[in-house]
Write a structure and sequence with these properties.
globular; 22 strands; 530 residues
């Protein structure tokens, strides 16, 4: 679950330097990440950095599947509740110090330690006694993680985890150098001197703010360094899509997804931009603890007032699809060859239903919008975000007679604001972490620290908990289908459209992998002619 700057991965600020000769690639990351601490980051921008400078027990391959990373093999007990990972020989951190199983143990324990404040802490609750420890009902030594020697990590599970291998490749489960982190738990990941990593690249420099960039360079201590064919990646920050496009055309950017919306259809048609499937949904998020959005009828009225077909055909462009449910296409269903969204059907019509929206609003006590309190839609600063906000504002005004105020905030401030629940309605983009429906649905569980809507439905929680322990695939997916039905009835979140990623890449580079979860992975990249 990675947050993205909505209205479609429209991020990024300015580049002046041209591509240096040699094995260097320039990628438009866009905004300055709030953090690249693997335990604290929840945003796509930070995750892209993390996935390139760190590595877990497993890593994501170029088919979006987990494969051996720092662990070369693993054993699983017959009941699936004990996993023994065997680390490779001679693993090292970027400062040359040995990387051991204890560092992986420390990384996971840090994730589930309450004082860390990790939004993804709940992801570790499948580990034996981890949730009890998090809630102060067990001791640290009771948690089912042990490192009997430098090359062996044993993880005992509270419940079967069907996504275990994906989890072990996810940034939240990366190893940690507590000798560094404990001295500066909030700022260690902000500068090269203390951000010691173990992935294909390491942090060279980080210039914050407008016009800044993050530079990562090849890590010679990486176990697979011989297959890393580039020396450096410059992650620049260009927010304005027109500026980014001009920089790309001028040869100053090699790879980017920041394409002017109005130009996308033509660029795609001409083959200058390529479209790939993305496991990303753009939503509006309601704060269900604030009036009037504590009333599901009001939330549904707002949802029905939006014409998603107009959004995808006239506004955001680029091959996106109207969102007809919470979970996007591309997620396996009860059978791996079936699609979860196709199986689940449509909960939302692509076209607005203004008559029903007005009826629900009147039933809630606000006929024609009369007496409706002042509410504000918050979004993070970007031209695309502003455009989407104004379109939604117009649809709500026309259909419901309600004037929704607009408020934009800088990305880092916006992340804090929404996490603290300081909003009525907010823009919300979610890149699914794994090709599994639970990856999105679980964030709306009452105990999820990513549940910024404050949604709380015991029946929904029960279905999600049942899915978490069910080993029968069909039963598990059916639990998730039932959970989505409840979520679409409660509507703490209003799905708008399913994203198709459009990217532009220079002919001078190859091998940059864009995963369906929107990770940009550089370890297989090459600069041609060098």
């Amino acid at each position: 679950m990675k947050k993205i700057l909505t209205a479609l991965i429209i991020m990024l600020m300015s580049v002046s330097a041209s591509n240096a000769a040699g094995k260097e690639i320039v990628y438009n990351l866009g905004i300055d990440p709030q953090t690249i601490d693997p335990a604290l980051n929840t945003a796509l921008d930070g995750a892209i950095v993390d996935i390139n400078i760190f590595e877990g027990l497993l890593r994501i391959n170029f088919n979006n599947e987990p494969e051996p990373g720092c662990a070369e093999s693993w054993d699983i007990s017959p009941d699936g509740l004990k996993w023994t990972f065997h680390l490779r020989e001679n693993l090292r951190w970027s400062d040359g110090k040995p990387l051991t199983a204890s560092h992986f143990r420390d990384g996971i324990l840090r994730l589930i330690t309450p004082e860390t404040g990790a939004a993804y802490a709940y992801m570790g609750f499948f580990i034996k006694n981890s949730e009890a420890f998090y809630n102060g009902k067990a001791e640290l030594n009771d948690v089912g993680i042990s490192a009997p020697d430098d090359k062996t990590l044993i993880i005992e599970l509270e419940r079967f985890n069907p996504l275990m291998l994906y989890y072990m490749a996810f940034p939240s489960f990366f190893p940690a150098r507590m000798d560094i982190i404990s001295g500066n738990p909030r700022a260690w990941a902000a500068k090269p001197e203390t951000l010691i990593s173990n992935g294909p690249f390491k942090l060279e420099s980080w210039t914050h703010g407008s016009g800044g960039e993050i530079n990562i360079v090849k890590n010679p201590e990486y176990w697979d360094a011989e297959n890393v064919k580039i020396d450096k990646v410059r992650l620049v920050m260009i927010e304005d899509s027109n500026t980014a496009y001009a920089s790309f055309k001028g040869g100053r950017i090699d790879f980017m997804s920041t394409i002017p919306s109005l130009m996308k259809p033509l660029l795609i048609k001409k083959g200058e931009a390529e479209v790939s499937h993305s496991l990303t949904v753009i939503h509006c998020l309601f704060n269900v603890t604030r009036k009037p959005f504590d009333d599901a009828r009001v939330r549904r009225a707002f949802s029905l007032a939006v014409d998603r077909k107009i959004l995808t055909d006239k506004i955001v462009l680029g091959g996106h699809l109207p969102a007809t449910g919470a979970v996007c296409y591309g997620i396996p269903g009860t059978n791996a060859s079936e699609d979860f969204r196709t199986e689940g059907g449509e909960f939302i019509s692509p076209r607005a239903d203004i008559e029903e929206a007005r009826r629900l609003l009147a039933e809630a006590g606000y006929p024609d919008g009369k007496g409706f309190p002042n509410v504000t839609y918050k979004y993070s600063t970007s031209k695309g975000g502003k455009m989407l906000a104004e379109v939604l504002q117009g649809m709500w005004k026309t259909a419901l007679g309600i004037e929704v105020g607009l408020s934009n905030e800088e990305w880092k401030v916006f992340l804090t604001t929404t996490h603290n629940g300081d909003f009525d309605i907010a823009s919300f983009g979610w890149v699914m972490d794994f090709p599994d429906a639970a990856g999105l649905l679980e964030i709306f569980m009452s105990n999820s620290s990513n549940n910024e809507s404050r949604h709380n439905n015991p029946e929904f929680d029960s279905l999600m908990n049942s899915a978490a322990v069910e080993r029968d695939r069909v039963k598990r997916i059916n639990y998730l289908h039932e959970a989505e039905k409840i979520l679409m009835k409660d509507l703490p979140v209003m799905p708008l459209y399913f994203v198709s990623s459009a990217v532009m890449r220079s002919s001078r580079v190859k091998g940059i992998y864009l995963s369906p979860t929107d990770y940009v992975i550089f370890r297989g990249a090459e600069v041609l002619g060098n």
